[in-house]
Amino acid sequence: MSAARRDFLKHAGLGAAALAGLPSALHAAARTSVATPEFSSVDWQQGVEQPQPQAVDTTWTEKLTGKYKAVFDVPEIHGGTGVWRGGLWLNHYRDVLKAQPSDLNSVIVIRHAAIPLIMSQAYWETYDVAKANKVVHPMTDKKTQRNPVLMTPTEDGLTGMLAGLTLDKQMERGAIVLACGMAFSSVIRTVGAKDKLSAADARTKAMSMVHPGVIMQPNGIFGVTLAQHHGCVFVAAS
Predict the structure, then answer these.
(1) pTM for the complete prediction?
(2) What is the average pLDDT across 160-166?
């Protein structure tokens, strides 16, 4: 385990015993007229014409009513550390400040190179995401084909703290997960290239493999700043 990860876990409140057993930590209907671009920053810089934009759901902001609100900016995969930190924040505010679920609002923005974290295990396994990004199992440091933030105790042996901090578990607790529409264009290209699909068909297939409940935004910075405008404290999570 690297010194940086060990320091992170120590600050997370894990003792020596826990550290020894944990080698490595780590669409709702649209109601606005904002448009989601389906092109990457490279496409934009090169002046590539974007496809017909899609409407964007910003109604998630209506849920930001708690006493404590934070937005976690996750631009890199980094083994899922940015997502784990979002869950740790919820746990620590509950344990230390005795905050109730209604007091807490967590927004996790997955953008830039981290965009594969919103994708299903089927996507990760089919398109060799872990291998391409040198992602290993968060508890064993062994090679994996799986999305670390969607692992399970049964299929992946995820135990202890991390088992309760996966993306789906946090969403069950009310965390809002936003995704960068611009970064998602890389997922569409990956699907299109491997499966030899048109852009439209690749998008349809890619969208079918997004984890349920993730809300696409025009880009990640849009989501980050909109959350801040609605009272969330900014956290550089990964």
Answers:
(1) 0.80
(2) 93
